[in-house]
Write a structure and sequence with these properties.
InterPro entries: Kinase-like_dom_sf, Prot_kinase_dom. This is Protein kinase domain-containing protein. It comes from Panagrolaimus davidi. GO terms for molecular function: ATP binding; protein kinase activity. The longest helix has 9 residues. Strands 1-4 form a two-stranded antiparallel sheet. Strands 2-3 form a two-stranded antiparallel sheet. By secondary structure, the chain is α+β, with helices and mostly antiparallel strands. The chain starts with a helix and ends in a 20-residue tail after the last strand. The mean pLDDT is 75. The radius of gyration is 14 Å and the shape is globular. It has a single domain, classed as Transferase(Phosphotransferase), domain 1 (Orthogonal Bundle). The chain is built from 1 helix and 6 strands, in the order H-E-E-E-E-E-E.
């Protein structure tokens, strides 16, 4: 899961609604569960966080509080 999110972040996007049920294995790899390739689904809240002039400074909280990082709980 972390590698899938890292790839999304390297592309300049954040998902903003991460939860375990939004990850799956490709159909052809379901028998090989040791494979590190995963698919992220539901990009409805996904947004850019890297702009030409740098990263966004402030972003309002959106998503599932249960699965959000601990840093977002104080805002």
């Amino acid at each position: 899961m972390a590698y899938a999110l890292a790839a999304l972040h390297m592309a300049g996007f954040i998902h903003r609604n991460v939860s375990p049920h939004l990850f799956s294995y490709p159909v052809q790899q379901t028998l090989d569960l040791l494979s590190s390739r995963m698919i992220i689904t539901d990009f409805g809240l996904c947004t850019e966080y890297l702009y030409k002039n740098g990263p966004r400074v402030t972003v309002p909280f959106i998503g599932s509080l249960r699965y959000s990082s601990i840093q977002t709980h104080g805002t």
